[in-house]
């Protein structure tokens, strides 16, 4: 979307086995990998290597190179990427921090259970409000990470909002990891990388 008047398709992810509904798609800062979530029980987060499509070698990507879940009977929901970490709001399993340095072998490096009651491993009844039914769709559903100091915030549909600090994670800048400084949090002072610097008017 560098030129909004002339959008250009770079890559597609289609025909993934077992996926009939797509929910969230979060790329790594360099755009090489992307993590996708399907809003269904038993569906792990899937990690796709977009390079073959970006290079023009293939027309579409249909097989993940890695996957992660906190509990195979449940489902992770929203995620925020701060390479090499992925912060996940994982419904009844709470907050999880996943190391993606090797996207083919992601692993959990930290977690906290924000959901203080049993998780019923059943989908909600048809035509119900998920937030009011004990099911795999209740618990930590939203997450954000503040780049300036590494503060982590989780929204849990039953237990409210939570704030966290992770030892050794005192903030994030992609350049510290050899990546573009791109994340789900906008740098309102400086804008995106490559943006012209605004002149102060006195």
Explain how this protein is built.
The protein has 202 residues and is mainly β. It has one domain (24-177): YVTN repeat-like/Quinoprotein amine dehydrogenase (Methylamine Dehydrogenase, Chain H, 7 Propeller), CATH 2.130.10. It has 1 helix and 11 strands, in the order E-E-E-H-E-E-E-E-E-E-E-E. The protein has one helix spanning 51-54; strands at 24-27, 33-37, 45-49, 66-68, 78-82, 85-89, 95-99, 107-112, 140-145, 152-156, 160-164. A hairpin with a 3-residue loop joins strand 10 (152-156) and strand 11 (160-164). The longest helix is centred in the first third of the chain and has 4 residues, at 51-54.
Task: Give structural attributes.
Methylamine Dehydrogenase, Chain H; 11 strands; single chain; 4-stranded antiparallel sheet; 202 residues; mainly beta
Itemize the secondary structure elements and their pairings.
Layout: E1 24-27, E2 33-37, E3 45-49, H1 51-54, E4 66-68, E5 78-82, E6 85-89, E7 95-99, E8 107-112, E9 140-145, E10 152-156, E11 160-164
Antiparallel strand pairs: 1-2, 2-3, 3-4, 5-6, 6-7, 7-8, 9-10, 10-11
Summarize the structure.
This protein is mostly beta strands and 202 residues long. It has one helix at residues 51-54; strands at residues 24-27, 33-37, 45-49, 66-68, 78-82, 85-89, 95-99, 107-112, 140-145, 152-156, 160-164.
């Amino acid at each position: 979307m560098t030129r909004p008047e002339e959008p250009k398709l770079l890559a597609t992810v289609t025909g993934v086995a077992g996926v009939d509904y797509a929910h969230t798609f979060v790329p790594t800062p360099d755009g090489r990998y992307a993590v996708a979530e399907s809003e269904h029980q038993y569906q792990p987060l899937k990690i796709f290597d977009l390079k073959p499509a970006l290079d023009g070698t293939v027309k579409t990507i249909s097989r993940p190179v890695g996957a992660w879940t906190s509990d195979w009977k449940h489902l992770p929901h929203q995620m925020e990427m701060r390479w090499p970490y992925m912060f996940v709001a994982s419904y009844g399993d709470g907050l999880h921090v996943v190391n993606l340095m090797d996207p083919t072998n992601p692993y959990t490096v930290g977690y906290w259970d924000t959901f203080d009651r049993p998780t019923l491993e059943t989908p909600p009844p048809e035509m119900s409000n998920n937030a009011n039914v004990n099911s795999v769709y209740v618990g930590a559903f939203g997450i954000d990470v503040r780049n300036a100091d590494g503060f982590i915030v989780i929204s849990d549909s039953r237990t409210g909002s939570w704030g966290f600090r992770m030892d050794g994670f005192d903030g994030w800048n992609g350049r510290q990891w050899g990546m573009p400084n791109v994340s789900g949090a906008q740098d309102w002072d400086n804008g995106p990388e490559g943006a012209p610097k605004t002149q102060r008017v006195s």
